Amino acid sequence: MSYQNWGPQDLSAPAKTSLPEVPVERGMVLEDVQSGWVGAVTRVEKSGGMHVVALEDRRGRSRSFRLGFGFLLEGRPIRLTPPAPRPAPAPAGGTRTASGSVRVGGQRAQVAKASRIWVEGKHDAELVEKVWGDDLRVEGIVVEPLHGIDDLAGAVAAFGPGPGRRLGVLVDHLVPQSKESRIADAVMASPGAKGNVLIVGHPYVDVWQAIRPAVLGIEQWPVIPRGVDWKTGILTAFGWPHSTKEDVGLGWQRLLGAVRSYADLEASLLGRVEEVIDFLTVP
């Protein structure tokens, strides 16, 4: 009898087969084999010299597990490894930003200009920042959330647009005969708006829908009945926590985490953002 293997052992580790090694990523849905716990990765941290992953289940409860063996990904056993290191930015000028433009190397962010991009809410601002942030820093353009456009006319009047102080506004659900289109028409008819204010929009109820469904692994966005809060309905359809503002914020972060570049967004949003950037930066 051999006593070489006597002592504490990791019973969840495979004895003979070699499992695929998968770097942990935020939003990845995993199952812990021993406990049966299923949840999405919300954070990874180093504690006591080892990496620990937090998995949040569909009810918003969270448990932490040590990285390594004993996880299932899409029903397949894997060895969960620490996050893949981010590659260092290449010095060559041919690399591209998330928006697809050529990255400008060695240039600091510009001092913010007086011109601004206004978007409806925090999520719109975060999406624009993720895809066009590098470009906007080079141009010195700041994105600011409005938290709704019901008083857009008053906000524009207070801003005081004019030459060298332009304003680009990105509006949700800007379609003919909508409340949003009537507000936009009234603002554009106000003194000082012509040539200094540009209001554009996408046709979606919320900027979430500007993420291409295929990026999320679905054929199309769920249809939410009238009278149901749209974001709550979407989270419910996905089977994600949806009861609190924190649930909505975490759900958005999972969606935003799936966006890597402009290729993950619908063309109807891409064109409008590019139009606004051109308006604010072209003399």
Question: How is the topology of this model organized?
Answer:
Layout (H helix, E strand, L loop, with lengths): L20 E3 L5 E4 L5 E10 L2 E7 L5 E5 L4 E3 L2 E6 L34 E4 L2 H18 L2 E4 L6 H8 L7 E5 L7 H10 L8 E5 L28 H9 L6 H13 L9 H15 L2
Parallel strand pairs: 1-7, 8-9, 8-10, 10-11
Antiparallel strand pairs: 2-3, 2-6, 3-4, 4-5, 6-7
Task: Describe the fold and architecture.
The chain is α/β, with parallel strands linked by helices. Helices cover 26% and strands 20% of the residues. The protein contains six helices and eleven strands. It has helices at 122-139, 152-159, 179-188, 230-238, 245-257, 267-281; strands at 21-23, 29-32, 38-47, 50-56, 62-66, 71-73, 76-81, 116-119, 142-145, 167-171, 197-201. Strands 1-7-6-2-3-4-5 form a seven-stranded mixed beta sheet, with no helix packed on it. Strand 2 and strand 3 (38-47) form a beta hairpin. The chain is elongated and about 70 Å long. The model is unreliable at 1-9 and 88-93 (pLDDT under 50).
List its salient traits.
seven-stranded mixed β-sheet; 6 helices; disordered N terminus; about 280 residues; alpha/beta; four-stranded parallel β-sheet
Side by side, the strands of the main sheet go 1-7-6-2-3-4-5
Specify the overall morphology. elongated
First-to-last CA distance:
84 Å
Mean pLDDT: 84
What structural category do the secondary elements indicate?
alpha/beta
Number of strands: 11
Helical coverage, percent range: 25-40%
Poorly predicted ranges (pLDDT <50, ≥5 residues)?
1-9, 88-93
**Strand composition percent:** 15-25%
Q: In this structure, how is the largest beta sheet organized?
A: 7 strands, mixed
The whole-angstrom Rg is 24 Å
Helix run count: 6
The ordered H/E elements are EEEEEEEEHEHEHEHHH
